[in-house]
Design goal:
There is one protein chain. The relative contact order is 0.10. It is built from 23 helices and 18 strands. Helix 7 links the parallel strand 5 and strand 6. Helices cover 37% and strands 17% of the residues.
Length: 535
């Protein structure tokens, strides 16, 4: 069997039927092998968009995503999306179709031998879990099995495979191919005993739910455990869309988080964190003061995160997909806590609200739009001022899910991510963007038009690069540099852009107009929200 044919069959057997990429000679045999298969290849207009779309697809589908491209600039254009997957623990396998193996520089020290030759394996190595160039056709089964195992297990993340064209077109005996053997699961008994003992001693326990729980699809399991024991729950920012309407969840913690959640962390005597990084925005730079009255048990599959301690915590290196079910089983014999602690935490939540952002008009628009977005709608958000407005004002409803570039905080994420989320869920998607962020991957509006996707793009246009403008306003006493229209920045004419991409367009310039919009219409549309600048 031809190697590229085997690759396509492998993806089909893994249940991956949507991939994202751009054609190229280097990946030509792989593309040809997809013809007639069950795999739908979604042609984007920039490789960075393919990487973002594949990552968002993985988050929404709760399984590995896949993106492909050709050698040289095709591979290098993936890098930002690869870094995003690395920072946010997203399982994606990226395939770069390389030049023929025999044409590469090999042991020579020259910069480049073949046209478009770039050592993409070394470029991607610091931001992938595994980056590898296939050297022989007979490796292909082992390499693919290892790639998906590495991407999906432990702390999820991206893998890059560089596959030379002469290997992709080679023939192999599939019955003779070597398989990858996954390691045996770890013994959890000591960790479970420590956790159970701490829970028995606690009077005011609290669960902190991080992105690891969401990625492992364990949010229901954790909440059922919390309910069985009357333990309140708080989340990190990436999980702010979980448990909407559930009174046992107090909201998300951190600098911009819910007051009730932060107060519970301050008052608890046992904090069990599940898949949460406890980074600066969650605990501030005074790490010693975080949950100062509590014993902390941190469960994380990444030993590197456990090295960065809060203080004398109990660190448990474990895969949540193994740990959480075993913990539930171990706690079945334990009686629930008295409801006093849970009741107190729920009373903190009544009437409390998050902080307003620095732009009250932006807050007001976001609050109105939040009220109009229906249940079961997928939402992507870009990096910028509008994300701050969302964090302070958006009230999530049943079935709504939020996708964002959190760790990398990359502008240009939301629009291609909306494409990936749509193909994973087949639900309407709302893309929340800013006038600066949308310009980073503006070309993907043509994808929405071409495929007639039910994606609404809401552009909050404050005619500035708001986050950096606010920084310059505060630190440099309003000495703006390329962030406002008076200092070199200019926003696009979004009405004309919508016309160019054959999208329905609406301008919203007042709260009354915002109250009349339809966020979901079943077809692509662009809504421009005119927000006054704070410059």
């Amino acid at each position: 069997m031809k190697v590229s044919d085997y690759m396509v069959r492998f993806l089909e057997e893994k249940g991956i039927h949507d991939v994202f990429g751009i054609p190229g000679v280097g990946c030509g045999h792989f593309m040809n092998s997809m013809i007639g298969s069950s795999i739908r290849s979604h042609l984007v207009y920039h490789e960075q968009a393919a990487a973002f779309a594949a990552g968002a697809y993985a988050q929404a589908a709760r399984k590995a995503g896949f993106a492909y491209t050709t050698a040289g600039p095709g591979g290098t254009n993936l890098i930002t999306g690869i870094a995003n997957a690395y920072c946010d623990s997203i399982p994606v396998v990226f395939m770069v179709g390389e030049k023929d193996f025999k044409s590469l520089r090999g042991e020579y020290t020259m910069r480049q031998k073949a046209s478009q030759e770039v050592d993409i394996v070394s470029v991607a190595a610091p931001i992938t879990k595994w980056s590898y160039q296939v050297h022989a056709a007979e490796e292909i089964k082992y390499v693919l099995e290892k790639a998906f195992y590495v991407a999906e297990n432990g702390r999820p993340g991206p893998v890059l495979l560089d596959i030379p064209s002469d290997i992709a077109r080679a023939d192999v005996d599939i019955d003779a191919l070597k398989s990858f053997e996954a390691p045996e699961p770890a013994d959890m008994q000591d960790a479970l005993a420590q956790t159970k003992d701490a829970l028995k001693k606690a009077k005011k326990p609290l669960f902190l739910i991080g992105n690891g729980v969401k990625q492992a699809v364990l949010e229901s399991d954790v909440m059922e455990l919390a309910k069985s024991l009357n333990i309140p729950v708080v989340t990190t920012l990436l999980c702010m869309d979980l448990y909407c309407g559930d009174t046992q969840c107090l909201g998300y913690i951190g600098m911009d988080g819910d007051p009730a959640a932060n107060r519970a962390v301050k008052e608890c005597d046992l904090l069990i964190t599940l898949g949460a990084r406890l980074n600066f925005k969650q605990v501030t730079d005074n790490r010693q003061s975080f949950a100062a009255n509590a014993t902390i048990i941190r469960v994380d599959c990444d030993p590197g995160e456990l090295e960065y301690k809060i203080r004398d915590e109990i660190g448990i290196c474990a895969d949540l997909r193994q740990f959480v079910p075993e913990l539930r089983q171990a706690m079945k014999s334990m009686s629930p806590y008295e409801r006093v602690w849970l009741g107190n935490c729920q009373s903190y939540k009544k009437g409390s609200r998050r902080k307003h952002s620095l732009n009250t008009a932006g807050d007001d628009f976001m609050r109105v739009i939040s009220s109009l977005v229906p249940e079961n709608t997928e939402i992507t958000v870009d990096t910028g001022s509008h994300r701050r407005w969302l964090m302070s004002q958006f009230e999530f409803k049943k079935g709504q899910r939020l996708y964002q570039s959190a760790g990398l905080a990359s502008m240009g994420y939301a629009l291609p991510a909306a494409v990936g989320v749509y193909y994973a869920t087949k639900k309407p998607v709302i893309c929340m963007d800013g006038d600066g962020g949308i310009m980073m991957n503006l070309q993907e509006l043509q994808f929405l038009c071409r495929e007639h996707l039910p994606i609404t793009v809401i552009v909050f246009n404050n005619h500035c690069l708001g986050d950096i403008m606010e920084f310059q306003k505060r630190i440099f006493d309003r000495r703006y540099f390329t962030t406002t229209e008076d200092s070199g920045y200019q926003a696009a004419d979004f009405r004309r852009l919508a016309e160019a991409f054959h999208m329905d367009y609406r301008l919203v310039a007042s709260i009354e107009e915002a109250e009349r919009i339809q966020p979901v219409t079943g077809s692509p549309q662009l809504i421009e929200v005119a927000v006054p600048s704070n410059a």
